[in-house]
Write a structure and sequence with these properties.
Elements: E1 3-13, H1 18-27, E2 30-31, E3 38-40, E4 52-54, H2 57-69, E5 74-80, E6 85-93, E7 103-111, E8 116-117, E9 120-124, H3 126-139, E10 143-153
Length: 154
């Protein structure tokens, strides 16, 4: 039996790249490992998702930017201590058919333990995550086109 909790968003932005979205999350309460390392993928990791720890965001930013430029997906692990939750944040740059925006992304927040709905303990309370993420995006002119919440337990 496996469990998967995921918050999918399709977004539009005029930011320069996915690394700028991560920087916005950092500026709004998201952080990395308690030892200050940053867990992400290596630049050339295309098939085995071998996460490694890096010592600085500047190193990771360069890797995220290079992966995006080469058409690869990105993945980084972040924590939000306000809600005591760990996320694997994955990004894929999509074709952009929108004249008002420079970038179009698919972003997935894979949720760690999952905060549950009171009285229905099996189900994830996605409202907590949406209330944490959406205002950050709106405040930073990141337009959300689509949101899907998935809660699999099978």
């Amino acid at each position: 039996m496996s469990v998967e909790r995921n918050l999918y968003m399709r977004i539009l932005t005029n930011l320069d790249g996915f690394s700028d979205i991560i920087k916005i999350l950092i500026d709004n309460g998201f952080c990395f490992n308690s030892d200050r390392t940053i867990t992400s993928l290596e630049e050339n990791d295309v098939d085995d998702f071998n996460y490694i720890d890096f010592k600085s965001f500047e190193i990771v930013k360069k890797i995220l930017d290079k992966r995006e430029e080469s058409g690869q997906s990105n993945s980084i692990i972040m924590i939000n201590y306000d809600i005591n939750e760990r996320f694997i944040i994955r990004s894929v740059k999509l074709a952009n058919d929108y004249s008002k925006y420079r970038r179009h992304y698919e972003i997935n927040f894979d949720i760690g333990h999952g905060i549950r709905i009171s009285g229905a303990e099996r189900y994830t309370d996605f409202g907590i995550y949406l209330n944490k993420i959406i205002p950050i995006f709106v405040k930073n002119n990141i337009y959300i086109c689509e949101v899907k919440c998935s809660d699999y337990d099978c």
